[in-house]
Predict the 3D structure of the following.
Amino acid sequence: MKTLINIFSLLLIFTSSSFSQFYADSVLADDVVEFVNIANEKTVNIDIYNRSKVEFTDDELEHLRKLYYKCYSFHLVCLNEYMAEEQKKWEKAFLNVATGKMKLRPWMRVYTLRDQLIKKYGLNFISIIGTPAFLRCRYIDLIFSKYHMIETNMNLNVHNFAFFVEDVIKGNKYFKIGDTISVQMIPNDESPAPSFIQGESYLIPLTTLLGIQDDAFNTIFVFLSNKQDAWEMGKQPKTFPIENEIIKNCEYFGIPDTSWIDFKKYFKEKYLVFD
């Protein structure tokens, strides 16, 4: 009975705090328009087989890095919605093309720019600045819900990981200390769920996706990768345990395991480059 009461209490908390913190960002931003325009202009004469032919000067790459940071850190919902409109335009043009080379899909254009940033600044760096939120959270519990796939008539188990936000090192536009949040996931063999210990603290990278169960933008884990253009099957999303105020697995950030205070200072100086 106590467990049912606790789960009911958590559901009430989530209802009041919303599953979709990221949806606060829904206004069209100039940074998004400029970033997408650059993607369109730079890739207008290429196809999927010669994406590497896109070239930038160092100054152009630095400006592009700033736009990339702004779009993914502050305007991700706006970027997703704007790109959905670009996709509609692409599909309409695709239907009208009788002959000739078809332009890259809109997201492929964006990924082409990302490829160039990775060449210049490294995969880990671009993955980190492209992640909207890094939160220090205490793990509370795991709540299951159902998602019905109309296409296959299947019911899937949605994992709702409940966390209490202890600190925000990136993403304070969307989250604040003291929030209780849910991170959603439908795990499978290719994308297994991460493991957490109840009551322990972790640094977790988060982003958003159009809702699993509704039309809101919901909070999900980021799969920080070590390989460009390669999905590492069977790998859990990266998390970073914090034990006795020492954060673990810090090699992804380019440093040894260190104190939480020192990590926050390092992260701010290296990765919050355009805040």
Summary: The chain is about 35% helix and 25% strand. The two ends are 47 Å apart (CA to CA).
